[in-house]
Amino acid sequence: MTVRIHRQEANFYGDNYQETIRMVNQETTEIDVGFTHEDFAALLDKYDYHFSPGDVVAGTVFSLEPRGALIDIGAKTAAYIPIQEMSINRIDGPEEVLQSNETREFFILADENEDGQLTLSIRRIEYMRAWERVRQLQAEDATVRSSVFATNRGGALVRIEGLRGFIPGSHISTRKPKEDLVGEELPLKFLEVDEERNRLVLSHRRALVERKMNRLEVGEVVIGTVRGIKPYGAFIDIGGVSGLLHISEISHDHIDTPHSVFNVNDEVKVMIIDLDAERGRISLSTKQLEPEPGDMVKNPQVVYDKAEEMAAKYREQVLAAQQPQSPAIPVTIPETEMEELPSAAE
Q1: Among 174, 271, 274, 270, which residue's Cα sits nearest to residue 225?
Q2: What are the CA-CA distances from residue 313 to residues 94, 279, 288, 308, 316 (Å)?
Q3: With contact defined as beta carbons under 8 Å apart, do 303 and 296 qualify?
Q4: How far is it, in rounded angstroms, from Cα 78 to Cα 179?
Q5: Which of the 8 DSSP states describes residue 288?
Q6: Rounded CA separation 256/332 (Å)
Q7: Counting beta carbons within 10 angstroms of the beta carbon of residue 168, is it exposed (0 to 12), middle (13 to 18) or buried (19 or more)?
Q8: What's the rounded mean pLDDT across residues 195-218?
Q9: Residue 58 · residue 104 · CB < 8 Å
């Protein structure tokens, strides 16, 4: 790059023009700074970073706008983050998440637009880390707590680590109507965590059953209330969790329908015959409590009166079945007697 003083520019010096030119020629007629404007642009390009969608980069907030923010990530043009990409949760203004001159990580969401501007996201980073966290919680079989924020015909909606989760109606253990659950905090266990299909399914019932199971045992007699009757059995509420009394476990005698034995809101004595923590199920029986086959059909009160006695016998039978069989004691026959034994060939 060269700097020259032209004749018209030297008019400022008046009559001493020739002297001025001589002095300039001696000292500053030409100053060569070593590169041109084109060289300078090429140098910028050489050290320019190349950004691609999917990259996570550090950026500094230098301007907050009503619906977004400008971020300096070292590109030629400031990148932009819209308000809807600032958080995994709903926010009303950028200042709820970002502060001027704050430096943090950003996800490059989209390539440069026609103005050379990249689009950034914080929500995507939070989204990826949230899925990683819930996978870890599922692996640990952790119980989480969350408040219901909405219900629909199929169940209830909650948020776990900012992700929307669904509780199927069949996995909600409460006497309240679903609509009344909004705002209520529930203990939950994970049923399905699938990031690819964007499915996060949870169970309230399984969380309650697990907590209840810590205090229950197979072979224990409990008092419950009939809360629902289906063709295949009756659902019994035992202390806030639901157990199934299958039709095949009601009586030794054949019955056509549970309605012939029970009514909704009946108080019953039942025995626990299985606890499935993985599936959140409690299996119950009155059949095993019958002193005589068919007593549940003929006289249920006899069954309830002798429930503890029959349950004790059931536990003894289960315990006996679990005991290892004693190994046979080998019999040693003296050699003299062996000689007297007839040969099989004889």
Answers
A1: 270
A2: 69, 28, 10, 9, 5
A3: yes
A4: 47
A5: G
A6: 59
A7: middle
A8: 88
A9: yes
97 CB-near residues (< 8 Å, 6+ apart): 86, 87, 91, 122
> What's the pLDDT tens digit per position in 76-128?
889 999 999 999 988 999 999 999 999 999 999 987 887 788 999 999 999 99
* Distance in angstroms (rounded) separating the CA atoms of residues 5 and 21: 8
Across 10-19, 44-53, 119-128, 277-286, which has the greatest mean pLDDT? 119-128
Considering Cα of 210, then 211, then 212, then 216, what sign does the dihedral take?
A: positive
Residue 158 tokens read as 């909650």
117 CB contacts (<8 Å, ≥6 apart)?
77, 78, 79, 80
Classify residue 255 by its DSSP letter: -
What's the pLDDT tens digit per position in 220-243?
999 999 999 999 999 999 887 889
For residues 268-286, b (16+ Cβ closer than 10 Å) or e, as one string?
Answer: bbbbbbebeeeebbbbbbb
What is the maximum alpha-carbon separation in the chain?
A: 154
| Residue 275 main-chain phi, psi, to 5 deg | -125, 110
Which tokens is 239 given?
Answer: 């202390």
Give the amino acid at 274. D
Q: Which amino acid belongs to residue 329? A: I
pLDDT at 94: 93
Rounded to whole angstroms, how far apart are CA atoms 67 and 55? 23
Q: Which two tokens stand for residue 178?
A: 């679903």
CA gap 323, 137 in Å, rounded: 37
* Pairing status of strand 281-285 against strand 267-276: antiparallel
AA letter at 86: M
pTM of the full structure: 0.59
53 close to 108: Cβ distance less than 8 angstroms: yes
191 contacts 202 by C-beta, under 8 angstroms: yes
H or E segment to which residue 80 belongs: strand 79-82
What is the rounded CA–CA span in Å between residue 23 and residue 16? 11
Q: Which of 1-5, 140-144, 170-174, 202-206 has the lowest mean pLDDT?
A: 1-5
**pLDDT for 340:** 41
SS3 101: coil
